[in-house]
Amino acid sequence: MLTRISALLSKNPGFETSLLGWVRTVRQQKKYSFIDIDDGSGNIQVVIPSSNLEHVITGASIEVTGTLVQGPHALEIQGNSIKVIGKSDVNYPLAKKAHTMEHLRDCVHFRSRTQTIASALRIRSEASFAIHNFFRKEGMINIGFFYIQTPIITGNDCEGAGELFEIKNSEDFFGKKAYLTVSGQLHGEIFASSLGRIYTFGPTFRAEKSHTQRHLAEFWMIEPEMINYSLQDTYTLASNLAKSIIEHALNNNHQDLINLHRNPQDLENVVKSEWTVITYEKAKTITNKQDIGLSTEEEKYLTENHYKGPVIVTNYPKEITPFYMKKGDKFAENFDMLLPGVGEIVGGSVREENFDVLEPLVPDKKALEWYLDLRKYGTALDFMWIFFWVYRKMFHMQGLG
Amino acid sequence: MLTRISALLSKNPGFETSLLGWVRTVRQQKKYSFIDIDDGSGNIQVVIPSSNLEHVITGASIEVTGTLVQGPHALEIQGNSIKVIGKSDVNYPLAKKAHTMEHLRDCVHFRSRTQTIASALRIRSEASFAIHNFFRKEGMINIGFFYIQTPIITGNDCEGAGELFEIKNSEDFFGKKAYLTVSGQLHGEIFASSLGRIYTFGPTFRAEKSHTQRHLAEFWMIEPEMINYSLQDTYTLASNLAKSIIEHALNNNHQDLINLHRNPQDLENVVKSEWTVITYEKAKTITNKQDIGLSTEEEKYLTENHYKGPVIVTNYPKEITPFYMKKGDKFAENFDMLLPGVGEIVGGSVREENFDVLEPLVPDKKALEWYLDLRKYGTALDFMWIFFWVYRKMFHMQGLG
């Protein structure tokens, strides 16, 4: 039976094993050859007497039998035999050297064999688990968040969150136009209005023609909705979730974080610190700008220069907030969470729960009649939502086409 | 601070509490009124001296303060005060009586306030967690399944899994036609060819114009891909996963299963029993039909009449299997898992890993060049995949439009 490299690294020297991995580098010397292999769980060096290693080249998959030994720098395998399972050839697009992200975008189907992308994927996998675990076990007030899947194909084009992808054959199929969702938040309120506390975690889509890191066509978001939460409850929930994801990565992806040049100590400090909470008005006093809204530069200044850590900014001017946010005379009951080096990763707000206030503000009353119905029949105070851009910025793997 | 009903039901009589719920039924008598409320975590009866309950009607959300007491049948709340948080009116579409599924389809935005749909959603939420937990902790051989999100928007229209939804503005946006994915399986192989063992769990789409329970436009699937697994390893993994989801529901959704008229004892027996494994040839001997393939009726006969339990059928005729399955002289190395009362919930196969055998069978070599590349550079034995229809059949919530 084959062992995975991640499991192997916890064994003691002397352990005899077989393992399968893809060859990353081969260094042939007179007496011995050194082969670095990776099986997706980690990588290890195989040392084997030099002989016929014709097909043992970068990209090939090989089965190695040998003994775990303590090498000069790390655990390694003293190989007894090597069997080539899948050949490779000189056209294999990943060479020994480090590759640019641009090159990796051209060989998307192999890039997860690189250490950088594999590490990002392993962190993403663990982060996903941490998210579900958090909502299931550590809901702030007491247990009871339900995981909900909101529809991807939707008839609502009026949420104002971004440009839509339209489905061509939808009028044939559904009898009306349909689009890919830009957010599950409005649908999420249906479930908060019955189950009390829910979260979504699934793909959303934007058709803006801006191909930058901030404008991906397809990315995953987390959108919780809770009744009976205050603004403070909500940003506390959001920061607890963010901290718990980071903490989980520190415990489960230590080497991956190092592979991505993240300093575990810095991350630990972020988890342990109190995160700054300020109003928009105070933020503008600090950045000393007179215009409305916070620019990317101002956000950067607040987190990287002034506070040197995460900042939660509350109560933005009501003119620049969407129809569903609860508003006072001048400001909305909302917040953005800003991280140094990343920018906005969470936005959240109290929802307007009063039918008479909300109704004139709804952009397409016919399409959103169902949404207004939630206010008509048994509305509840303090709907909240938050959403996470962290996936969009840190981990998204662009589609293969 | 408000308590959730699910948490309340574990407290001792005498506990004083406030809670928020939606009114399901109200029965006013001369001295006392009986109000059944639900907060999405569960339901409880409130008994309160009759007075002005004008706005306490079905659908309204109310805040109740009172004491937990042991009633004649179950725990109930002896109410001190009631505050109406959100009114309702006579047009609220859920009356006291039981509703047909057809009626609930007409008021999709309220149906999760019914016991049946709420129970299905709570089971689905727990099942999702059980799935992630299984792959993270209980991978059959040893740890190491990574959760991967494969693209929803894809250029591949040639997997043969079903009709596609086309994205109208995709040629503007991507410079070529794009579709909604029918399966993440081929992309999943990229990650199995680097990370070793992965699973996807996300939405897939089918544009067949058959609006039956078996043909939903949008549903979630689980698609694991493993290298170095045998056919037996794979169907053992699939049945272990299925058993672990059922077991998790038995432990966490006991009342919900009863609400959905499932007998927990029957489910426990299914978890404890050995599941039958037979070849397609043997299955045909039992059903005594000469045609090729297994019809829904034959599947039903095997699970409900002959074996009275889950049946795994292996090695279907190679003519009726897709291009990517490994084939022998007459049969493919694949299986279907059939459950009584449900039908096929899992299909799986060994993949053809040999480039020379696979290449002539690929339907669109240009679009799938990347897929063939996986065989060219470092192919590995025994790619496997399984996928779960359980979500499609049991839990899917049709989009709201």
From TrEMBL, chains A, B:
**Gene Ontology CC entries for this record:** mitochondrion
The alphabetical list of record keywords is: Aminoacyl-tRNA synthetase, ATP-binding, Ligase, Nucleotide-binding, Protein biosynthesis
Q: What Gene3D superfamilies does this protein's entry cite?
A: Bira Bifunctional Protein, Domain 2, Nucleic acid-binding proteins
Domain of life of the organism in this record? Eukaryota
Task: Spell out the coiled coil positions from the record.
Answer: none
GO biological processes: asparaginyl-tRNA aminoacylation
EC primary class:
ligase
GO MF entries: asparagine-tRNA ligase activity; ATP binding; nucleic acid binding
Query: Residue ranges of the Aminoacyl-transfer RNA synthetases class-II family profile domain?
Result: 121-339
For this protein, what is the EC number? 6.1.1.22
Enumerate the Pfam families for this protein: tRNA-synt_2 (PF00152), tRNA_anti-codon (PF01336)
| SUPFAM superfamilies on file | Class II aaRS and biotin synthetases (SSF55681), Nucleic acid-binding proteins (SSF50249)
Annotated signal sequence range: none
Q: Which family does it belong to?
A: Belongs to the class-II aminoacyl-tRNA synthetase family.
Q: What is this protein called?
A: asparagine--tRNA ligase
- The species this protein belongs to is Stentor coeruleus
